[in-house]
From TrEMBL:
Residues 10-250 form the ABC transporter domain. Gene3D superfamilies: P-loop containing nucleotide triphosphate hydrolases. It comes from Plantactinospora sonchi. This is ABC transporter ATP-binding protein. SMART domains: AAA. PANTHER family: SKFA PEPTIDE EXPORT ATP-BINDING PROTEIN SKFE. Keywords: ATP-binding, Nucleotide-binding. InterPro entries: AAA+_ATPase (IPR003593), ABC_transporter-like_ATP-bd (IPR003439), P-loop_NTPase (IPR027417). It holds the Pfam family ABC_tran. GO terms for molecular function: ATP binding.
Length: 265
């Protein structure tokens, strides 16, 4: 399969990223196809967000080659690529004005802006924004302001926003961070639903916790200090051996059905 095959949504070939003389990523080769749902796991500072920034074209590699949706990063129109990739990150979430109506938080993604001003949206866009809020279980909050939402409700609103442009690729950076147990379980269930949806885009979800891997996620990439420890199908990659190497301590992984749990050995 060539990197430009339409099935390949992310293709990293021997990628390195350096900043201030430090390697953030080292020799990463990784390929994601349209029907795959990936989880990226690793400790703080392992390079997970850097990897997502490469995949979304927000960052250029120091060495190696990155293709996203068939476009070579560094040689493509980023504005066009951005509408084809849905992203939720803490950095983006911080830019959402507290006084913004929830419906508009989703709607404004159609223009790649945060904060509604004078853009004109058609009835179809309005209807799509509400349908997405409904899919994420927060349609009842559409007229509330973003600042009044709980953290879990905000996270679901951000995912609805990321889906607004009907992206070919969805990148989720720690979507369950800061959620209580109920909020996490609700989010995991909604992401599992999305993962099983044939119409849904390819997905990459960054997390620190195996408990947050939604059923239906097919593959995992484990990162430590900018390097790949293991990658492949979830069942073969989320093991005690690989997780211990990734997090640098002896760990045991338990699997119950299609959910995982990890604890110190
Ligand atoms: N512009 C920069 N200059 C120097 N170092 C950087 C820069 N950006 C990131 N880093 C460092 O690169 C490393 C990887 O960062 P990254 O955010 O990708 O990690 P992460 O796995 O997402 O971490 P976390 O789980 O804590 O969010 C970190 O040690 C970080 O301090």
């Amino acid at each position: 399969m060539s990197p430009l095959s339409p099935d390949v949504v992310i293709d990293l070939h021997r990628v390195g990223v350096q900043r201030s003389g430090n390697p953030l990523l080292k020799d990463v080769t990784w390929r994601v196809t349209a029907d795959e749902r990936w989880v990226v796991l690793g400790p703080n500072g392992a390079g997970k967000t850097t990897l997502l920034n490469l995949a979304s074209g927000r960052l250029h590699p120091t060495t190696g080659v990155v293709h996203a949706l068939g476009e070579r990063i560094g040689r493509t129109d980023l504005a066009e690529l951005r509408t084809r990739i849905g992203v939720t990150t803490a950095a983006l979430a911080e830019r959402i004005p507290a006084e913004e109506r929830v419906r508009d938080v989703v709607l404004t993604a159609a223009w790649s802006v945060v904060g509604r001003w004078r853009e004109q949206y058609d009835a179809m866009d309005e209807a799509r924004a509400v349908a997405l809020l409904d899919q994420l279980g927060v349609a009842g909050l559409a007229e509330r302001t973003y600042g009044t939402l709980s953290e879990g409700e905000r996270k679901r609103t951000q995912i609805a926003r990321a889906l607004m442009t009907d992206p070919e690729l969805l990148l989720l950076d720690e979507p369950a961070a800061g959620l209580d147990l109920g909020g996490r379980e609700d989010l995991v269930a909604r992401l599992a639903e999305l993962a099983h949806d044939d119409e849904a885009p390819a997905m990459v979800l960054v997390t620190h916790h195996v408990e947050e891997i939604p059923p239906g996620f097919t593959h995992a990439l484990l990162l430590r200090e900018g390097g790949v420890v293991a990658q492949g199908p979830v069942a073969e990659t989320i093991t005690g051996e690989y997780l211990s190497k990734t997090f640098g301590l002896p760990l045991v992984v338990d699997r119950a059905g299609d959910r995982f749990a990890a604890r110190a050995a």
